[in-house]
Design a protein that fits this description.
Elements lengths: L10 E5 L4 H12 L3 E5 L5 H8 L3 E3 L12 E4 L8 H9 L3 E3 H11 L2 E6 L4 H14 L5 E8 L4 E4 L5 E5 L14 E4 L13 H13 L6 E5 L3 H8 L5 E5 L7 E8 L4 E8 L2 E11 L2 H15 L4 H10 L8 E6 L2 E6 L4 H12 L6 E5 L4 H6 L1 H5 L7 E4 L15 H11 L3 E3 L3 H11 L5 E5 L5 H14 L1
Parallel strand pairs: 1-2, 1-4, 2-3, 4-5, 6-9, 6-10, 7-9, 10-11, 11-12, 12-13, 17-21, 18-19, 18-21, 19-20
Antiparallel strand pairs: 7-8, 13-14, 14-15, 16-17
Helix pairs in contact: 5-8, 5-9, 6-7, 8-9, 14-15
Length: 464
């Protein structure tokens, strides 16, 4: 165990500390009285927040940054030739990756709640976190996005509860020790690691099996693979659904308003508990809300408190986040990067009052774009006009096997509404020249596509 060889007050250096997960872990380590420093490629709002908590931040990476460190933590994005990692190995320092560290931390909190699924993790984690924090559970929270009501992407509490996302990529979540686990959905993704959907399903079954016998599994029974996984694991299960009357939590009488936000009746084993009006759009967010209701009810949160928290919840940043308006054109940003997420988000947007619906999409990773090309081809049906920019490589190298133009072609074979933009400026110019009063523009993807929306809004400032 990493912490067995470290005493309070010793110096832990974190390579890639500006990452959304690493920064939260840094906050926990500071709370536990370790001296923490870290490095990243460039400053950010996250590294600035860490500085204010007393953490020394270095940019960029340099071997000298680890001088005086007693142990090293690094993210999966850090390559073997990173100068700090190379130097740490030369010095023989204890080294641990982010996922393993998080796994050890989950074993320290008796009531770790881990939220998993192909998509919806950040929103659901945020919903549960806000609800339990408002009900004075005082949880420690690690979210994969920034949430205004908790002051960012993490919160350090004093109770036995830890609420965290559990990502399936490279089976990181198999290092976790959850008392409760949520499985929102299971679909094909991360096919640069997983062989196929059966491999993914097997991984989720192992994750479910990590919940102890006295713990709880919460799952979406409208997802046939989730239902099958939970039926194969000998644990207590709480189910939720929009369709199956026999589930533990059911949403009925769903009504969507002009903003695309759903109102629904929540039933617990057939008993009406109350009506909830969400203020974030999309039917998919009903599932996220039901998962929140199921978990929070299990741990004793009164339904009235759950209802109050959910009805005030405005979402995490980059989850259908309103960015501003330009000449009567509304700019919204969303993190969706899987075909199911894209489809659900655009369907939610289409229900809002608008003239034309634009989507500026940045595919995320070459392997995902290539493997899910067919699914992506039908994901944009709700948009009137789609601008597709170059693929965001993230952790991958370009092998030349797939290009955004291939996605444009695939989409146009289905809906004939896509064009290619070679760079951010070109995409922004298309909106500035062609979008009209009342149009809704979504920048969409897990990379840096949000900058295009900011460029459009900056044009407004420049014109003043």
């Amino acid at each position: 165990m990493f912490f067995d060889n470290l005493k309070k007050g010793q110096h832990i250096h974190m390579i890639g500390i500006g990452g959304i997960s690493m920064s939260g872990l840094a906050g926990i380590l500071v709370k536990w009285d370790y001296k923490v420093s870290g490095s990243d490629l460039k400053p950010s709002s996250i590294t600035e927040k860490l500085k204010k908590s007393g953490i020394e931040i270095f940019t960029p990476h340099d071997a000298l940054n680890i001088e005086g460190a007693d142990a090293i933590v690094y993210t999966a994005a850090i390559k073997d030739d990173n100068p700090e990692l190379v130097r740490a190995k030369q010095l023989g320092l204890p080294i641990i990756d982010r996922a393993t560290l998080l796994g050890e931390i989950t074993s320290i909190y008796p009531k770790t709640i881990a939220i998993s699924g192909t998509h919806g993790k950040t929103t659901t984690t945020s919903m549960i976190s806000v609800t339990m924090a408002e009900d004075n559970f005082d949880p420690t929270i690690l979210v994969g996005g920034e949430v205004d009501s908790i002051g960012g992407n993490y919160r350090i509490g004093t109770s036995e509860f830890l609420i965290t996302e559990a990502c399936e990529y490279v089976e990181s979540f198999l290092k976790f020790h959850p008392h409760a686990a949520v499985i929102l959905n299971i679909e094909s993704d991360h096919l640069d690691y997983f062989k196929d959907i059966n491999h993914i399903k097997s991984s989720f079954e192992k994750f479910a099996g990590r919940v102890p016998q006295d713990g709880i599994l919460v799952g979406n029974f409208d997802d046939s693979i989730v239902r099958n996984v939970l039926n194969n694991v000998n644990r207590k299960v709480i189910s939720f659904s929009l369709d199956y009357k026999e589930t533990d939590w059911l949403a009925e009488n769903i009504i969507t308003n002009t903003r695309g936000c759903a109102k629904f009746d929540a039933l617990n084993r057939g008993e009406y508990k109350g009506t909830i009006q969400l203020c974030i759009p999309g039917v998919h967010n009903i599932y996220n809300a039901l998962a929140c209701i199921a978990i929070c009810s299990y741990y004793g949160v009164d339904f009235k408190q759950i209802k109050s928290a959910l009805e005030k919840f405005t979402g995490a940043k980059r989850r259908f986040e309103y960015k501003g308006t330009y000449n009567g054109i509304t700019i919204v940003d969303d993190y969706a990067h899987h075909p199911s997420e894209v489809k659900a988000t655009l369907e939610a947007a289409a229900r809002q009052s608008h003239q034309s619906l634009w989507c500026i999409f940045q595919p995320h990773t070459y392997t995902r774009t290539k493997a899910l090309l067919s699914e992506f081809s039908t994901a944009f049906e709700s948009a009137d006009k789609v601008i597709i920019i170059d693929i965001y490589a993230a952790r991958e190298a370009n092998t030349g096997q797939i290009h955004s133009k291939d996605l444009v072609k695939a989409v146009n074979e289905k809906t004939s509404n896509a064009v290619y933009a070679a760079n951010f400026n070109e995409a922004a110019e298309m909106i500035l020249n062609e979008a009209s009063l009342g149009d809704l523009v979504l920048t969409m993807g897990a990379g840096d596509v949000y900058q295009i929306g900011e460029m459009i809004l900056e044009s407004k400032k420049a014109a003043v």
